[in-house]
Amino acid sequence: MLSERRLQVLRAIVQDYVGTEEPVGSKALTERHNLGVSPATVRNDMAALEDEGYIAQPHTSAGRIPTDKGYRLFVDKLAGVKPMSAPERRAIQNFLEGAVDLDDVVARTVRLLAQLTRQVAVVQYPSLTRSTVRHVELLSLAPARVMLVLITDTGRVEQRMVDCPAPFGESSLADLRARLNSRVAGRRFTDVPKLVEDLPEAFEPEDRGTVSTVLSTLLETLVEENEERLMIGGTANLTRFGHDFPLTIRPVLEALEEQVVLLKLLGEAKEPGVTVRIGHENAHEGLNSTSVVSVGYGSGGEAVAKLGVVGPTRMDYPGTMGAVRAVARYVGQILAES
Question: pLDDT of 160-210, one tens digit each?
């Protein structure tokens, strides 16, 4: 365990390096920070931090920079994330509240996160497996053709055309719509198959084929979206950090193109709180020079998906964590109200 004084020195090194992009020396530390000890003591503390792998010397005669281990300890010992100011919170709320549908919410969230953090923003669409049914609408397009519209609690809207085996009257359609919603509205997608399995028996024999066809289409809609969807933005922000990627930025860009990699990076939505993965904690080799800050979002206090940012390990962690958490909170509120 590091002493409180050495932890204070490490914090100062991280803050200065993130702010100046330059390796930090003992003289600069004592001048910029009120550490309450002599430069010689700071030098000793820096030597001890280097021996324990928290900081490193990139060049001879240069100052020191934090290692992944140093950033990890800095994040773990953070007293708190940097709160957003009242004007920033209002700006976030106003920007997101203008969204017209789920796609627009996700697109605005990506744009906002990239602008606030000046990193690459990644937003996962709400997962259908963690969603509940808000409403099922059935619209007659022709005597034997129906449009099925599924609306989820996260604002997702799925539409399907259903070709019925026989004409289906408006009164029968209204009856099916009412019975269907009384059973499935507000229920988890995973519960729906059992809830509707005996529904055809409530209808006249000549209508049961059509009811079964509509239900089959509904159940297909619930399960066929297994592939998780993501939206990514702000990739151009990485070009500002060329010197933070020792060899080339290409492996990072290639990794960001892989949706499976990004989903693994964001982690499971059920993980509580803000998650920070630093450098080599990211399993994908191309992202060993980056950090990922992510958090779950959703309505009703339950996370249905994740959002976050990817940037160099030399990152303003308190500010980034604060921005990611604030945006997730507002996205959750909008989904709850939509």
Answer: 999 999 998 899 999 999 999 999 998 988 899 999 999 999 999 999 999
Helix (H, G, I), strand (E, B) or coil at 126: coil
Question: CB-based contacts of 101: which residues, under 8 Å, 6+ apart?
Answer: 155, 157
Beta strands in 154-304 (DSSP E): 157-163, 230-233, 275-278, 290-297
The greatest distance separating any two alpha carbons of the chain, rounded to the nearest whole angstrom, comes to 92
Contact 125, 248 (CB under 8 A): no
Give the Å distances, CA to CA, from 162 to 140, 142, 149, 172: 10, 10, 11, 15
Separation CA 232–CA 225 (nearest Å)? 19
CB 163 within 8 A of CB 143: no
In 287-326, DSSP assigns E strands to 290-297, 305-312
Torsion of CA 45, 50, 56, 62, to 10 degrees: 50
Question: Sheet containing 120-124: which strands, arranged edge to edge?
Answer: 230-233, 120-124, 305-312, 290-297, 275-278
- pLDDT one-digit tens code per residue, 110-122: 999 999 999 999 9
* Residue 115, token pair as written in the block: 């602008």
The owner of tokens 């990506």 is 110
DSSP-assigned letters across all residues of 1-49: ---HHHHHHHHHHHHHHHHH-S-B-HHHHHHHS--SS-HHHHHHHHHHH
Q: Which of 65, 31, 61, 27 is nearest to 49 (CA)?
A: 65
CA distance 126 to 304: 5
Indicate the pTM of the whole model: 0.78
d(CA 16, CA 31): 12
Q: How far apart are CA 307 and CA 121, in angstroms?
A: 8
Is the separation of the CB atoms in 313 and 281 below 8 Å? Answer: no
What is the Cα–Cα distance from 230 to 259, expressed in whole angstroms? 7
